[in-house]
Write a structure and sequence with these properties.
With 209 residues, this protein is an alpha/beta fold. The chain is 56% helix and 11% strand. Helix 3 runs parallel beside helix 5.
Length: 209
């Protein structure tokens, strides 16, 4: 029987990844690897000037994510990771490049490093994709967590990220994806919906193993 080891929770900024990851981790007694936000030296500068700091930020996340994957591969526990290394490139870096924020030479440099890293990692056993097509709801979630550097996030940027997420998720190994739509439902306000999510996860894992 195949053992599930590496689970990723993916989705746009403010979609509820961290909150749901913490709940899932507690429910199933899984180890949790959160995205480096608090100790990230570039996030504040990035939102003040994306053009100046986008490359630095994306390299930081790429390195951080790779280090997490290495630790996960060495662990005997089931680990849930907040965001995948794939969306760093397929969603965020591509969005920044296509929007003219990231220069071509920076994008190409990043892409080469990313492709080198891909040779040394495996896909996660399960990818939980949190979809929310309601941008106003995402913005409301961002406002609620009161991170100072996020106050200047542009609505159009969030819309573009959603589009790139949808394009990326279509290319990922489909049998390893569990999509949870949060456009209308709220797992924080609705305990029944949270229980439904737990059941969906259990069912998907049973299918994979």
């Amino acid at each position: 029987m195949k053992k599930i080891n590496h689970i990723v929770i993916s989705g746009n900024i403010g979609v509820g990844k961290t909150t749901l990851s913490e709940k899932i981790s507690k429910k199933f007694n899984w180890e949790l690897q959160l995205e480096e936000v608090k100790d990230n030296p570039y996030l504040d500068d990035f939102y003040k000037s994306m053009k100046d700091w986008s490359f630095h930020l994306q390299i930081f996340f790429l390195n951080s994510r790779f280090n997490q994957i290495q630790k996960i591969s060495e662990s005997n526990n089931v680990v849930i990771q907040d965001r995948s290394i794939y969306e760093d490139y397929e969603v965020f870096t591509k969005t920044l490049y296509d929007s003219g924020v990231l220069m071509e030479r920076e994008f190409n440099n990043y892409k080469k490093l990313y492709n080198t890293i891909l040779k040394y990692i495996n896909e996660p056993d399960l990818l939980i994709y949190l979809r929310n097509l309601n941008i106003d709801k995402i913005i409301s979630n961002i406002d609620k967590r009161s991170r100072k550097f996020e106050k200047s996030i542009d609505k159009e940027y969030l819309k573009k990220l959603n589009i790139y997420y949808e394009n990326w998720i279509k290319k990922h190994t489909q049998e390893k994806i569990l999509t949870i739509d949060l456009s209308e439902d709220d797992f924080i306000e609705d305990p029944k919906f949270l229980k439904k999510i737990y059941s969906m996860i259990e069912k998907k894992i049973n299918e994979l193993t």
